[in-house]
Amino acid sequence: LDRVVKAAVDLRISYATKFLEAARQTVEDGSPMIRPIWWVDPDDPNTLTIDDQYMLGDDILVAPVVEDGVNKRNIYLPKGVWVSTSNGEKSYEGPCWLKDWPAPITVLPYFIRQS
């Protein structure tokens, strides 16, 4: 458990500037820090039906496992080029579904949209 907590804290620290950028945008224009994925592509009908993924700002998509005992999940990436740090910086062109993405309890699936 200590290892999992340490990894989560380290991840948060490594993205502290992204949290601050999202908070600054919230103050400037009222956008929520944590956003539904339809926020970045409201014309994509797939984004309107997904309620178990979210965005941190406009460029970080988080897809946590929300079911007990599950260690993989399907992930939808809206338009853009997305990079996952959990598989060697491989990039994916959205919109697309990633089927059966590995998501053990020790890994938080997330993707960074490239500009």
From TrEMBL:
Residues 30-114 form the Glycosyl hydrolase family 31 C-terminal domain. GO terms for molecular function: hydrolase activity, acting on glycosyl bonds. Pfam families: Glyco_hydro_31_3rd. Keywords: Glycosidase, Hydrolase. InterPro entries: Alpha-glycosidase_related (IPR050985), Glyco_hydro_31_C (IPR048395). This is Glycosyl hydrolase family 31 C-terminal domain-containing protein. It comes from Allacma fusca.
